[in-house]
Amino acid sequence: MADTLEFNEIYQEVKGSMNDGRLRLSRQGVIFKNSKTGKVDNIQASELAEGVWRRVALGHGLKLLTKNGHVYKYDGFRESEFDKLSDFFKAHYCLELAEKDLCVKGWNWGTVRFGGQLLSFDIGEQPVFEIPLSNVSQCTTGKNEVTLEFHQNDDAEVSLMEVRFYVPPTQEDGVDPVEAFAQNVLSKADVIQATGDAICIFRELQCLTPRGRYDIRIYPTFLHLHGKTFDYKIPYTTVLRLFLLPHKDQRQMFFVISLDPPIKQGQTRYHFLILLFSKDEDISLTLNMNEEEVEKRFEGRLTKNMSGSLYEMVSRVMKALVNRKITVPGNFQGHSGAQCITCSYKASSGLLYPLERGFIYVHKPPVHIRFDEISFVNFARGTTTTRSFDFEIETKQGTQYTFSSIEREEYGKLFDFVNAKKLNIKNRGLKEGMKQSYDEYADSDEDQHDAYLERMKEEGKIREENANDSSDGSGEETDESFNPGEEDDDVAEEFDSNASASSSSGDGDSDRDDKKPAKKAKIVKDRKPRKKQPESKKGKDPNAPKRPMSAYMLWLNASREKIKSDHPGISITDLSKKAGELWKAMSKEKKEEWDRKAEDARRDYEKAMKEYSKADSHRGERSKKKKKKQEKLVKGKGDKKGTTSKSSSSKSPAKGMSDSFKSKEFVSSDESSSAESKKEDSEDEGGASPAPSSEDSASGSD
To answer: Which of 171, 225, 503, 659 has an alpha carbon 20 to 30 Å from 127's alpha carbon atom?
Structure first.
């Protein structure tokens, strides 16, 4: 039999709502992960007391009861899965999966049984309906009557508001059945009652959602927001996550409280409570408890008297009471150095924070998107201007979020972050175009964003070059750019691999038609060296010694197999986390042993590098000698060509232009030339300027 069972599209009943997710049964217990909120319910196998299989509206359902009275309901199973589940419960949990059908007679007279946190209305031995007492928001009594009011579910189209039970009087003296019924309900119900004094009070805090200034009163089980117009009571059980986010101006802090279910005001739902603090605001706080109670309840996380920044005190108190971690931005750093990106969402400007496991946008409206619910992301061109771009996120449920007006300088940082988190990028070719040459993707019709990316990269290079040119302080290059003659000479010297000093005299008198393609060649060929530079940097000598490992990496390589054997089936990420914990907990003496090994490896590397550099210098000297020999051979051939050109030029008339002269090599190669073309060339040369002297040509080449 398999050690685990997994079911997709299972629905969990929580406070009247059916939340879809994934259910996994293993030897250790039962795990359900909510697809919407990401919340995980973990039931240990040792806590399971009873399992019930029954027919429900969505096929078949599984009800699990724990030893401490909690009830968990999961619907969406097929009838054929009963045998598989029953065998699994027998083998791993030592429980009999009982089959119990609901009573469908339609009677409204029966018996109420209280079992743990569940109220069951039964007719005979069959239940008619069950009410989790945690759904009850209020319980009131009347003459022979008890009324239960329920928390409202925002996702459901129709919600149950209240249920009334008629309790007949009994003959027993001294016991009121109505009060006994109400006390059983209130002992397990999620009823907010402000009994006693608040632990502490924060006065006049600025709240962005819901907007206004509120006094926050901290009670042992709930949070009370008291404003001028509205009051809100928030049970700590509804707090899903806590975030502490620095503002882009580095002078303010956001403290975000994620709520499920949300607080309500009329038809408005607030899924997030966002507080804004100034970093300069300090506070001295005294808890309304004695020191023994503080130590017993919070176990050192809080003290009776505390002082510090206001945002630190609020976050510290909330963390201790809610018992949840506070999420802060990870390693992401934008173009401006901040840990967030300025953008717009639904026509409102705000800040997008890339976190370690998701994105959060503040503040209007606040949005939190986890990585595990993202289907893909997309980088799109800005609709109004080319100086910005849009970042689109689509979830697996089909919901799309578009964050627009992001500065294009943030593109590289955001793309690298998304790529590092291994999110599915819809226009993946956009990043590949950055690594490869421009010519391969410039004319691509499949991805319109490649050209946009390359233009941004090209403009960035131009700005860097302009900055380098201005730092040199020389104005000669700007003067040369306005001199057409010298510009053509630069093209010949930089890009003509066969150009020499003696041939510069023949390049100065080209036609206008010949100049045009030369300028185009300059633009095209000016990019090629830039593209070849990163390729040359990437190349490494395979014979070069490898860098030495750190002490931690040496220990990890030696201990990897042992960690795998101790934790079978561990993933790569969990293995690295576990290794980090083991290394951190290792004693100083053991670490020193690996430090010595790392030091020995470093010495060996330095010794090998010295030998490698000596051998490399010998190879460099041999290549230099070979290059000098080649230069001498080329120079000798150039001198011979120079003597032949002098002898032929002495025979030509003094009025002859430099372009009218053609060497023997040129004449022999141009076999298709005719007498008529020579005649046309001589007529065109008649109006040309005289050739420069040898002194001028020498100065131009210099």
So the answer is: 171
